[in-house]
Amino acid sequence: MELTLWTYEGPPHVGAMRIASSMKDLHYVLHAPQGDTYADLLFTMIERRGKRPPVTYTTFQARDLGGDTAELVKRNISESVERFKPKALLIGESCTAELIQDQPGALAKGMGFDIPIVNLELPAYSKKENWGASETFYQLIRTLLKEAASENSKISPQRWKELGRRPKVNLLGPTLLGFRCRDDVIEIQRILSEQGIDTNVVSPLNSSPDDIKRLIDADLNICLYLEIAEASCEWLKRNFGMEYTTTIPIGIENTINFINEVHKKLDLPLTNKDELENKSKLPWYSKSVDSNYLTGKRVFIFGDGTHVIAAAKIAKEELGFEVVGLGTYSREIARKVRGVAKDLNLEALITNNYLEVEDAIKKTSPELVLGTQMERHSAKRLGIPCAVISTPMHVQDVPARYSPQMGWEGANVIFDDWVHPLMMGLEEHLIDMFKHDFEFVDGHQSHLGHTAVNTEENKNNSQNIESCIKEIIWTDSGKAELTKVPFFVRGKVKTNTEKYALSKGLVEISDETLYDAKAFFS
Amino acid sequence: MNKVVFNKETGPREVFCGLTSIVWLHRRMPDAFFLVVGSRTCAHLIQSAAGVMIFAEPRFGTAILEEKDLAGLADAHEELDKVVNDLIARRPEIKTLFLVGSCPSEVIKLDLATVAEKLNKKFLGQVQFLNYSGSGIETTFTQGEDGALKALIPLMDSTDEEKLLIVGTIANNVEDRFKKIFKNIGIKNVESFPPRQSTELPKIGTKTKVLLTQPYLSDTVRDLQHRGCEIIYAPFPLGVEGSTKWILAAADAFKIPALKVHEVIAPLANRARQAIEPHKKILKGKNLFLLPESQLEISLARFLHNECEMNLIEVGTPYLNKELMEEELNLLPENTKIVEGQHVEKQLDRVRESQPDLVVCGMGLANPLEAEGIHTKWSIEMVFSPIHGIDQSADLAGLFSRPLKRNQILTTKTLATQK
């Protein structure tokens, strides 16, 4: 038994729902008690979907348990098939149904429907959401392509040449409730089409069971999200010899690496290599002098495997940060994350306990946290800027604007999203100049919003200072010199000088006092 | 009884389970902790219903059952003991710990009563342990509160003092208003259940007169009756009409003349009716369809029909206690269609056929209906907003007029730009 106050991932059947809801012509009959329908709101509220997830909950009650719950399952299956007319059916159980062992999958298969039925066995007491999504996607592909697997010869990634057409690829892994999947898919398709590569199928997002049957028309699979698509890519490789890409195109270098990997696998010459450096603004923005202040900023990274691995590379190599902490809640990707951490001389934090993550943030005292919405809350409590890089999904992670993480535009988005919570270079410089002002007591952090600042204490401090300052007299020469100070800093210079005078026990401020103060504060 | 039309429906439901009520119960009693003994689904449900906005460590959590716990029951008891020890070490300020049963804990027949009993001995004088079930196989949404309150009743001492006990969670400011009104009409001894601190439970006895603020407390009512409490049957305090009749019923039980009540509340009622007026202009003549969720549906329907002049197409409720609802049912217009239970698909078919102007429904259904051009109000807001009492009547009407008003604004603008 594990005490959980909050969890990064839902149960595995929610992962299955992500696959079902992402697709068309697919229906999921879930043997589940009343209440499990809460999961619908993840899609309709967080993702703002205008469609209900294609899920029928059998809704068994305590009084059904003594009777025939199997009959209830069968009734729901036939009603669903009749009403929704799906082209394939997913059958599964939530945690409670797993305990009563009605075996709904076997029941469904015995009912004589002429559509493919996928029996999902998702152990609710040992696995979690992303695993459930991965397993569902894999089982669906396996069911729909099982027959083709036995007859098909191996698919060479270079066969497009013999077939006399442009190369075409599948993009695998984007789902609803996945981080910026909607826009990543557009960005990657745009990049590929610039290289003369067609997209055969994007799946699961907006695809149908018929599209899944067409996966084997492609020459190569693009694995966009390890958590969701790696198992499926492996199966397609084993059974059809289909190669898949392993570089996740997040960040400049990995987008370039990705393009190279695709070209190499397809044996397609890369003709615009030099152009690639200039496709995104990130490299130049990172080189521009304002970004000097980014150098060595201490950053703590936590999230799903795919996004933290990418973030670590971008932070270190493309923005010049220092990564001081790295971790993931994706146990399935833990080995890869540990490897990345080791290269950074860190030990990866693998946990599903947000309080452990918060403690780790405290211990490393970073200047920026890259995490999930939960780390955003933790960072806020600790007064540290934060940018969100990973699921679990929050309504803010589904922005109205085009906002991918992958590819060139993704790199632009990442630059803005990560840097804006920090102070900008010039701003940081100015704040440093005036940091002794009473307005900046407790440390001014420009973009943080609600930091824990003791306002009562501040008020008292400023009142004390003001009451003393009334006693100080500005001489004519002092006043004259003050007017020469640029207006936008004049107020600050005045207060600083008065504070200086006060600390030295002076009653008059002349032009000389002003220069003394300037020297003192510089 | 008025001739309303009762229907029952079974099938797939789109409702929350009783665990969801933890979201408001833990806020009402800040010295209590709610530990669900369940699965990752339970944990995910509560955090999703509460929103991911956890700004501080929450006062609820889940002891997630793992495969090894399912293997043998003795193990599970020990494991739970360990979780509780950790929790109390971490949160020493907890005074009451509710062990909340879930679907999986009920199915494997985990005996939380025995666990609570053992823990009570162990932590005697430090923390009190209670148990109830919020499982979806037994409870719907608000029924979780019924279970939690029922569990507290054995801890309440007996008294012969005459008092009015207001039962059901309401917002603190609403509670204060009610107490002031009762004081002004001459009922001095008024207490609330649940109290604001789990350890400050009111005493009860044969001279306790119970006035319900919420319609979903069937089990609590039964146990209070067993303790000798007198139940005051009344409509529920939603809207001017419901609140007035509710206060009058209490006054009657304390033999206070109705005239005295009217003297006190007439100015409030007049003020509230005026405040409802602008909302009524929007709601009048509009067709309303209520899907089942909180058991507040019948009272809401009565308010929206009688005071806002909406037409009722269908009033869904997850469960109907005819005894507790009798006063409400009498106030509904004739031939009101009441549907107990749900077949969500068939009900949505009826929604589409009847083309209502407003549908009250859960969060899973709201945006999909909006996308079909049907306006909605999510029902969960009724249990999170202060809606009870005369003073809140206009706010309550506002919850329903806002979506319609918003639609008018947006449509006009869209049309304007299209010209």
Mean pLDDT of chain A: 90
N-end to C-end Cα span of chain B: 54 Å
Strand order of the largest sheet of chain B: 1-12-11-10-13-14
Order of neighbouring strands in the sheet with most strands of chain A: 12-11-10-13-14
Give the overall silhouette of chain B. globular
Total number of helical segments of chain B?
A: 17
Structural class of chain B: alpha/beta
Q: Please report which band the strand proportion of chain A falls in: under 5%, 5-15%, 15-25%, 25-35%, 35-45% or over 45%.
A: 5-15%
The fraction of residues in strands of chain B falls at 15-25%
Shape of chain A: elongated
> What percent of residues of chain B adopt helix (DSSP H or I)?
40-55%
Helix content of chain A: 40-55%
Question: How would a crystallographer describe the biggest sheet of chain B?
Answer: 6 strands, parallel
Radius of gyration of chain B: 22 Å
Q: What is the β-strand count of chain B?
A: 14
What oligomeric arrangement do these chains adopt?
heterodimer
Q: Can you count the beta strands of chain A?
A: 16
Biggest chain pair interface: A-B, 59 and 66 residues
The helix tally of chain A amounts to 23
Report on this structure.
The complex is a heterodimer of chains A (522) and B (419). Chain A has a five-stranded parallel beta sheet, sandwiched between helices. Chain A is elongated, with a radius of gyration of 29 Å. Chain A contains 23 helices and 16 strands. Chain A has 522 residues and is α/β, with parallel strands linked by helices. Mean pLDDT of chain A is 90; it is low at 446-465. Chain B has 419 residues and is of the alpha/beta class. Helix content of chain B is 48%, strand content 16%. Chain B is built from 17 helices and 14 strands. Chain B has helices at 22-28, 40-50, 67-71, 73-90, 103-107, 112-122, 143-152, 172-185, 218-226, 239-253, 258-283, 297-306, 322-331, 344-354, 363-371, 380-384, 393-418; strands at 5-9, 32-38, 60-64, 96-101, 128-133, 163-167, 190-193, 208-212, 230-232, 287-290, 311-317, 337-341, 358-361, 376-378. A six-stranded parallel beta sheet of chain B has the order 1-12-11-10-13-14, with helices on both faces. A four-stranded parallel beta sheet of chain B has the order 3-2-4-5. Chain B has a four-stranded parallel beta sheet with strand order 7-6-8-9, with helices on both faces. In chain B, strand 2 (32-38), helix 2 (40-50) and strand 3 (60-64) form a beta-alpha-beta unit. In chain B, helix 7 (143-152) packs parallel to helix 9, helix 10 crosses helix 12 (297-306) and helix 11 (258-283) runs parallel beside helix 17. The longest helix of chain B is centred in the middle third of the chain and has 26 residues, at 258-283. Chain B is globular. Chain B starts with a strand and ends with a helix. Mean pLDDT of chain B is 93; it is low at 415-419. Classes of the chains: A alpha/beta (522), B alpha/beta (419). Chains A and B meet through strand 1, helix 2, helix 3, helix 4 and helix 5 of A and helix 2, strand 3, helix 3, helix 4 and helix 5 of B. Strand 1 of chain A pairs antiparallel with strand 3 of chain B.
